[in-house]
Amino acid sequence: MHKKLLSLFKEPHMDNQEVLDMLVASIDNFPLTDCSTKAKIGLSDLKNKVVLLLVSNPELLPIEVLLLLVQQMHDHPQRLTLEGRYEVLWIPIPTSDTWTYTEEQIYEFLSKSLPWYTIRQPRSLHPIVVKFIQQEWNFKQDPIMVVLDSQGKNTNSNAFDMAMVWGARAYPFSIARENELWGEETWNFQLLLDRIDPLVAKWVEEDQNLCVYGSNNIDWTKEFTDKIRDIINSGLQLKMVYVGNKIPSEQIRSIVATIRDEKLTGSLTFTKIKFFWHRLDSMRRSKLRLGCTDDKDQILKQLLELMDTGENEKGWVLIGRGSSTDMVRLQGRKVMECLDLFPEWGENVAVLGLAGAIRTAIEPKPVVAEPCHHSDIIPFVDGLKETVTCAKCKRTLEKFVVYECNVVK
């Protein structure tokens, strides 16, 4: 049977029925359950669809990860435009050869609560199928999401992180699509905050100045927000979002409550803070699974630095505009030093942008004895920025347009 499974996934098929039948063989014609309606489902309901096999222990996932997965895969607005072209099929596998009472109870509860399909009698899953999933698809303890296209071909051995990052937008969830999506992304707030919170998403879409910040120290948070509010009261347009730290603790929950009660700044809820950091971790795993390295991939480099930010500091901030790739990250004492310099960099925001003005204020300034005579040529295909700062003397360069003419004889 193991050999037959191996050969089955190497052969071409007209549809996915033979492959699915081999995996979830049952004594009747309705081996699946629609968790949302409790209806018995036959394999024919999955014909001509992309099927995502969500393989996990009966406990499935921590509640906040599960909620994010449901939000991304079921509640995503793009799912409506796909007209049921994909379905999630949950395959629970116990931690040992037999199901424990606790696993049975948890499975019974979740199987009545989730918006996707599951195996109606998971205890009857053939041991050789379980062994095949463990050996060939490398299922250990962490959940995986194996993608079968409409012909039953395995197009992605684990699209779980893809689903967490992009949700239904990742259809058809293949490795090729994962590479394509990363090719479309840049390091900005749109990538970091996508669909985490409707209000924050609106700020990003409106291209407003944003400050995303984190800390597990309430005294630092209050000092920081006091300084920021003084700057905002002076006329600077800036939206604030507190996102805690990558290990949300009860201390973070307490800070969220203080920010809300004292109306210090905007903040994600405690659950959405967990969403934020889980998504970042999924981005990291997706990049590493594709073979990216932080010395060649700028998004991965920035991602790793952000996830390491704040480990030994009281707080950190990430400042920029909604869809702009120009962002500046500060942490610890550097944050307060920067805010104390506000009168200096505040005057340059209109010309250099918020991140550019801050960067110019905090970076060492070279001694310039003569006027700047440096130049920089920016190809049109890279986009023409409104302002360009000289890399050597930090002055704003004057802009000219140069045309190149190719003469064909």
Write a structural description.
The chain has 409 residues and is of the alpha/beta class. Helices cover 41% and strands 13% of the residues. The protein has 17 helices and 11 strands. It has helices at 2-8, 17-23, 63-73, 77-81, 101-110, 127-136, 160-166, 175-184, 189-193, 198-205, 218-233, 250-261, 270-289, 298-308, 333-340, 342-346, 349-362, and strands spanning 32-34, 39-41, 50-56, 86-92, 117-119, 144-148, 154-156, 209-215, 239-242, 315-321, 327-331. The strands form 2 sheets. A 7-stranded mixed beta sheet has the order 2-1-5-4-3-6-7, with no helix packed on it. Helix 7 crosses helix 13 and helix 13 (270-289) crosses helix 14. The longest helix has 20 residues, at 270-289.
Number of helices: 17
Helix content: 40-55%
What is the 3D shape?
globular
Run of helices and strands: HHEEEHHEHEHEEHHHHEHEHHHEEHHH
Q: Based on helices, strands and strand pairing, what is the structural class?
A: alpha/beta
The percentage of residues in β strands lies in 5-15%
Largest sheet, spatial ordering of strands: 2-1-5-4-3-6-7
What integer value in Å does the Rg equal? 26 Å
Low-confidence stretches: none
Distance between the termini: 69 Å
* Most strands sheet: 7 strands, mixed
Tell how many strands the DSSP assignment holds.
11
Q: Whole-number average pLDDT?
A: 88
